[in-house]
Design brief:
The chain is of the alpha+beta class and about 150 residues long. It has one domain (about 20-140): Diaminopimelate Epimerase, Chain A, domain 1, CATH 3.10.310. About 55% of the residues lie in helices and about 15% in strands. Helix 3 links the parallel strand 1 and strand 2.
């Protein structure tokens, strides 16, 4: 007799290893949360998903992508980027100077708290959506659409 895994066990392992971080429905739900949050503000919110940070600091990566995506060029200097590295289990939130000056560390601490609560329960899409809504509320309070 030979030892090994049952073929069904391999199938389950394969699905777990190669399952996308977010499903199409979850991505659509996050996009809808962003659209709703941006409806009441002149600010912009972007979510950027990476598989790995490759040893780099997530906050410096967030700053890099913030500039690469042109979020530093918003009229009100009120863009926000949420970067999630799902295989490393790390994230960073980077906001432009105007939103940081108005909302300060309180916003980032609250957004982090909301995100971590869902991430701890492996509800990644829900955590991202909750974080987007939290940031959107602050943006709407400080930078409402006319």
């Amino acid at each position: 007799m030979a030892a090994g895994r049952h073929p069904l066990a391999w199938t389950r392992l394969w699905r777990r290893l190669f399952k996308p971080f977010l499903s199409r429905g979850e991505k659509a739900s996050i996009a809808q949360a962003i659209a709703e949050a941006e409806r009441g503000t002149t600010g912009e919110i972007h979510v950027h998903i990476l598989s790995r940070t490759r040893g780099r600091d997530p906050l410096s990566l967030a700053q890099h992508f913030f500039h690469k995506l042109g979020l530093d060029k918003t009229d009100g200097r009120n863009g926000v980027l949420l970067l999630v590295s799902h295989l490393d289990h790390r994230f960073a939130i980077w906001g432009d100077e105007s939103i940081h000056a108005k909302a300060g560390e309180t916003l980032w601490a609250q957004a982090k708290k909301v995100l971590l609560a869902d991430f701890a329960e492996r509800r990644y899409a829900q955590g991202i959506e909750a974080c987007v809504r939290e940031v959107g509320r602050e943006l709407a309070a400080h930078f409402p659409k006319n």
